[in-house]
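Anyone opening a protein record will find just a pair of labelled lines. A complete record is shown below as an example.
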Amino acid sequence: MPSLQVASGGFWGGSAGLETGDTWFAGAGLGRTNLRDYANLNFDPNDAWMLWGGYRWSQSRSLSLQVVRDNRQNPSQQNVHLLYRTPVADQRLLTFDLLAKTGLVDGAPIHRLGLSVTYDWHQYFVRLAYDPDVNFTPQDMWRLSVGSRF
């Protein structure tokens, strides 16, 4: 599961992960960037290691736990995701992502909860997310995302 990110200001980053298993599954990954500033629109640190595992009842129904921990500049930053994905109609899915965030924000320890809910059609999706202490700053953020899968 490779990814590549490119942003203005000369930022670049990437990640790779491996997963094994069908019904019961487990995976691990690593992300790295060139440490340039950019607007990070995901929940997790990008210079991090990732571990996950879970259970799939079917291709469209699963429960998993994922740990993402910064391993470069801010090793106290950690996000734990509990993800539940379930079908709701013909080729439509609903995904709940409960986030437990710990780390330091302006030198003070935090323990916060966030949540995202995604509704998927065959090719399109809409997601509403609440991200507390976004990117480990004092700001909380609500996000509404609409997109297409390709």
The chain has a mean pLDDT of 92.
